[in-house]
Design a protein that fits this description.
Among the domains are: 47 residues, no CATH class; 75 residues. Helix content is 63%, strand content 6%. A three-stranded antiparallel β-sheet has the order 2-1-3. β1 and β2 form a beta hairpin. α3 runs antiparallel to α4. The structure holds zinc ion (ZN) (2 copies). One zinc ion (ZN) binds next to loops.
Length: 186
């Protein structure tokens, strides 16, 4: 028994020959002191109480009261580490799952960015092609203006410009259509 265990009646520590009892009010007595008092009544509290003989067969809850603080710490340190390891394992698993998810999303974002850049390049090349066509359409219009003299008086310059635009539209569409067709197959 630990050094703090003593009889609350005679203040003697437990002897090899004597047995100790614990009352429900929390007092301990040696056999001699227990017999001195009334049956089922505490000598100190003077109230009715239950008495339990302290032995290795005593209920574990009561035995736990006599456990050394150092072994109590070891017991809880072990329990604490087991519980924290269990929880940590699950946290790591969840973390790995989200890590994987994040890298998948990053990869998908990278691919989408590349796709957007690719489409922007196609669009700008289309715009370049379109402006080339527009320049080509406006440049020769200067030359026939000289031949306006040979035009019949009825046809105006605006009518002629309109007919040229109509002629050019299909060719500009053809140019615009080809890069789109390429990018869809890619
Ligand atoms: Zn005693
Ligand atoms: Zn008592």
């Amino acid at each position: 028994m630990a050094s703090w265990v003593f009889c609350n009646g005679c203040f003697q520590p437990p002897q090899a020959t004597s047995s100790f009892s614990l009352t429900s009010c929390g007092h301990m007595y040696c056999d001699v002191c227990l017999r001195r008092g009334k049956r089922d009544e505490c000598l100190i509290c003077k109230v009715a109480c239950r008495t339990v003989l302290l032995s290795k067969h005593t209920d574990s809850d009561i035995q736990a009261l006599f456990m050394g603080i150092d072994s109590l710490c070891r017991k809880y340190a072990k329990e604490t580490s087991q519980i924290s390891e269990f929880q940590e394992k699950h946290r790591r698993r969840l973390l790995a799952f989200y890590g994987e998810k994040i890298s998948q999303l990053e990869e998908s974002l990278r691919k989408s960015t590349l796709r957007v850049e690719q489409l922007q390049r196609v669009r700008s090349s289309q715009q370049t092609a379109f402006s080339t066509v527009k320049t080509a359409a406006s440049t020769p219009s200067a030359k026939p203006s000289g031949s306006l003299l040979f035009q019949p008086r009825g046809s105006s310059a605006s009518e002629r410009a309109e007919s040229m635009e109509v002629d050019l539209t299909p060719s500009s569409r053809r140019k615009a259509a080809s890069p789109t067709a390429l990018s869809t197959s890619a």
